[in-house]
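Researcher: Here's the sequence for the chain we discussed earlier.
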Amino acid sequence: MLIVQKIDHRNLVLDVLRGMAVLGLLLVKFPGNPSYVYTVLHYPEGNMLTDMVYSFFLFAMGLSMFYSFSKYEFSWSKRIAVKIGRRVALLLGISIVLNLLNMINTRVSHFFEINELCYIAISYGLTALLVLWLKRLRFLISVVLLLTIICCQTFLPFPVNVLRMLSSMIIVLTGYATIIFCHGRTSRLLLSLGLFIVGLSCFLIGSVWEYTVPVNTTSVVKMISYSWISYGCLVFLIDVCRWSKWTYLFTIFGKNTLLIYVLAAVFALSFGKIIVWTTPAGSAVSISQWFYKNLCAAFFGNNEAGSFCYALVCALLLWLVAWLFHRRKIFIKV
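Model: Thanks. This is the structure I predict for it:
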């Protein structure tokens, strides 16, 4: 079941990274008019911002796994098995419910499509088993998974969903290995510079690699590089420079990631498909369409700017909901 906790202290860098992922998700997935979207906000896989958003979620999951498993001394037990199983089951359950809701006014086969939450749930469960059972082989596992993806894409007609699952597991494992390496390091300046340099090197390798191997494989390398670079920059700004006032916007999102993810999907379905009325002209209009046409498009035009304005307003409304939960120190997790 969902657990409502009152928490006083959380890892600031981790919350900011999660918050950046949530904000990016809202801006990418909820344009006012899908026909008018800035190039950087296009949703297809392979787009830089899309890859960053997805990789931030997975990388942050790997980071948080370290803090979660530390309570159990990183050892396999019945208690931790129940916790992992419950978390995977709940995430999959939420994913199924969202798909069922999304079937409204759409094709029935949409139920069988795999959304991001499903990938996140399964990759979390499998990765958790690997890091607890094979403690000293995390890096080797990541390398093996990456080589598996390359071989499958090059020599075998492997299902895309399986390859994406393996890619997700690599990023989660990378986040977990990163926090192990960073934990206890006294020089945060050297740590941040190291993460930035390694991330930049990884990005350059992925860019060169694009000319010799399939795009999906290089996308994994680049997604890891985005996470390392961003994490290094956050460590530098927050831990080294002590600049933390600007983080408030992101920490509000980051402390209630699951809540905002679910609410965003429910709001999109409710205002876009469920609450619909018929105009005197006989056409069906939803709240989302009315709001975009009469406010966003009216002020900024039916173009990329108006579409982006709609996404920003949706993000602001959801931020206010998260702020209300934050004000009462209530954080929802599974």
